[in-house]
Amino acid sequence: MVVNLKIEELQPESNFDVLKVRIISKSEPRQVQSQGRVLYVWDILVIDETGSTTLTLWGQDAGEKYKVGQVVSIENGWCKMFRDRKQISLGRGGKIFPAEDDPSIPTKLEE
Known about the structure:
0% of the residues lie in helices and 55% in strands. By secondary structure, it is an all-beta fold. The chain has one domain (4-98): CATH 2.40.50.140. 19% of the residues are buried.
C-alpha cells in the first residue's frame, strides 16, 4: 500500500512512499568534493500545508527543470537530519516529477 505523507509526518533516517510539495525557492547548484570528485548539489526549499524542508538533488543539471511555484511529487524518497533540520532526497530508487497544481499547498512560508 502506497502512503502519501506530509512533511510533519516524515521520520528522520527513514524512507517514504510519496510526498507532494510546492517548490518555494531554489539555489544554484553548489560544488562539493567527495572521494576526489567534484559533485553538484541543489538545495530546494519545499513546502506543504504542514511545514517546510529542504529537498537535496544531486547532479549538475538535477534542479534545472523544476521551477519556483511548481508542485512536484516525490516517490521513494529518504528523510534524514542535517544541521538539526529534516532534509529529504531521492535516495537510490527515488523519483521526482511534476504534479498537478494543488491549491491546498501554500505558495509561501508563513511569517
